[in-house]
Design a protein that fits this description.
The structure holds two protein chains of two kinds. Helix content of chain A is about 35%, strand content about 5%. By secondary structure, chain A is mainly α. The chains are: A mainly alpha, B alpha/beta.
Chain lengths: ~90, ~475
């Protein structure tokens, strides 16, 4: 069972601000889903390998050839916080 | 008056008149629409059609209109994924499938509504309003590609593209009485598709006939080095349009007719299977014992992948930004205010399932169950050529009926998600109606044997008329 405090902690990990007043409501809805997930415990998976994806391919490489990429100006059209070819963001630390 | 037209009729009409005339008539229909299927209508569509008229009608889809799910990047057009967090974002590049469509001469009419970030079965979680089902405006069109299926059913486009992570093409196709196809994993490049759960999803076409699905697949399918999960194996979809199922071996998985299935849906699907028998096929019941765990495994995996994929939406490079004293607070507030509740829930659950102490219990366990589900498919499909089952256990439900109870909404995906876990191809074709609402027959094939699946669906379409049934306002 996920507690109200855990919801707030997971919110921080996921960078989603959760108001203390809403945490209880979140916990109730999340717990009903987690309870459903609990049925996976019934399955015997001893010795079963995990499947990350179904395509039988690994380590896809391409030749080290320079190709065109998006123009910087095209990428920056989607921000209002452009300065000197960079995107401005609040300080991290 | 809205009209259903297939590609061959459209191409004939275009060569007799013009692509511009066709595009103008679709734009007029869209202008009168009351179903909220489009989130954006391209104001340059008519110009594009005119330029195709000028250049000649050489391409496989020359002058043929198409609508694109709003999770597929289309240069110069908004790509919102049904979310406020991408409000105002205009894609600076084309997805692989869009490049292919442009080369083939298709005319993009606009972008279609969807559940926010494709997380839903009803299109009700879109930040841009619910799309209505053209068969009954009080009902959902299905989801998450609800807009893409509804606009085809309503005659607002002959073709559309959706994406299918756990049934998001097949479910709305079934609910709206049209054809929807999820190709084998790796058959269509995901380059330019906004990722939700990338180990599960494929871009897939929606149309009013299997024939049109095959044409569209021949345009968008094939290898692309920009998607590292793209598989370099050619499938010639139109070559599979053969009306012959003599000797076809059909498996009917008992578990797909389980608890909660509507009696009318069950009957329509069995009628279809018996129709195949009349056409020379045989059927046998098969068991896929891990089906009951597929839904839980699917949601753990999808949410875990989503929590990672959606980390990029942080208010830094695009979309709205809610101020905060440092980056973390800014990102946390932006995501809290711009993601809808269901997206937040799935990111939180995915983050929880991947966090220290829970990774093995949820995520790793789900990946192992995925292996068992996939082995069920391998085993069943080694005995038969295709599997047949209902796409959805019920016809379209009412708007508002399930949206407040996430779990009940998840349960309606029970017959579609196992297919994505296994990566096999699957198509939904109309096979009847219950109380005036369409029912979808789901045909499932072996990985990269999409041809047998298309042949099976085409033969059914050729020998029945379910696919000709259309909503009252459409001729």
């Amino acid at each position: 069972m996920i507690t109200k405090d855990e919801v707030e902690h997971v919110g921080w990990l996921a960078r989603i601000e959760i108001d203390s007043a809403d945490a209880e409501g979140y916990a109730t809805k999340l717990n009903s889903v987690l309870e459903y997930f609990g049925q996976l415990d019934e399955v015997d998976t001893d010795g079963v390998a995990p499947t990350y994806h179904v395509a039988d391919i690994m380590n896809v490489f391409r030749d080290d050839v320079v190709t065109d990429s998006l123009e910087q100006k095209d990428v920056l059209t989607n921000t209002d916080s452009e300065q000197d070819g960079y995107i401005k963001a609040p300080r991290i630390m | 008056m809205a009209e259903w037209m297939n590609i061959s009729t459209l191409k004939e009409t275009i060569s007799g008149s013009s692509a511009a005339e066709i595009t103008a008539s679709y734009l007029e229909t869209i202008g009168k629409s009351g179903i909220n299927g489009y989130t954006y209508v391209f104001d340059g569509a008519l110009e594009r059609a005119k330029s195709i008229d000028k250049d000649g009608h050489g391409g496989m889809l020359a002058g043929v209109p198409i609508a694109i799910k709003d999770s597929i990047s289309t240069k110069g057009m908004p790509t919102t994924c049904g979310s406020k967090i991408l409000e105002g974002y205009v894609a600076p590049y084309d997805a692989h499938v869009i490049e292919r469509l442009k080369v083939a001469g298709a005319v993009i009419l606009g972008k279609t509504n969807m559940d926010e970030f494709a997380m839903g079965t009803s299109t009700e979680s879109s930040a841009y309003g619910t799309t209505l089902n053209p068969w009954d405006p009080k009902r959902v069109p299905g989801g998450s590609s609800g807009g893409s299926a509804a606009v085809v059913a309503a005659g607002e486009t002959p073709l559309s593209l959706g994406s299918d992570t756990g049934g998001s093409v097949r479910c709305p196709a079934a609910f709206c009485g049209v054809v929807g196809f999820k190709p084998s994993y790796g058959a269509v490049s995901r380059y330019g598709l906004v990722s939700y759960a990338n180990s599960l999803e494929q871009i897939g076409p929606i149309a009013t006939s299997v024939e049109d699905i095959a044409v569209l697949m021949d345009v968008i399918g094939g290898y692309d080095s920009r998607d590292s999960t793209s598989i370099d194996k050619e499938i010639r979809y139109q070559d599979a349009l053969v009306d012959d199922v003599a000797g076809l071996n059909i498996g009917v998985p008992t578990e797909y007719f389980g608890e909660g299935i509507d009696a009318g849906v069950e009957k329509s699907v069995w009628d279809a299977i018996h129709m195949y028998e009349d056409m020379g096929a045989t059927w046998t019941q098969v068991s896929m014992p891990h089906t009951k765990y597929a839904l839980a495994a699917y949601y753990v995996i999808a949410m875990s992948e989503a929590s990672s994929n959606l980390a990029r939406f942080d208010g830094t490079r695009y979309g709205p930004r809610v101020d905060g004293e440092n980056w973390h607070v800014m990102a946390s507030r932006t995501r809290a205010s711009c993601f809808g509740k269901e997206v937040q829930r799935r990111i939180l659950l995915g983050t929880y399932a991947l966090s220290a102490g829970y990774h093995d219990k949820y995520y790793l366990k789900a990946l192992k169950v995925r292996t068992l589900v996939k082995q069920d498919f391998d085993r069943a499909l080694s005995q038969v050529d295709v599997l047949m089952a209902p796409t959805m256990p019920t016809p379209a439900f009412k708007i508002g009926e399930k949206i407040d109870d996430p779990l009940s909404l998840y349960l309606s995906d029970v017959n579609t998600v196992p297919i994505n876990l296994a990566g096999v191809p699957s198509i939904s074709v109309p096979c009847g109606q219950v109380d005036g609402l369409p029912v979808g027959l789901q045909i499932i094939g072996k990985h990269f044997d999409d041809s047998t699946l298309i042949r099976s669906a085409f033969a059914f379409e050729t020998n029945t008329d379910h696919h000709t049934m259309r909503p009252a306002e459409v001729v």
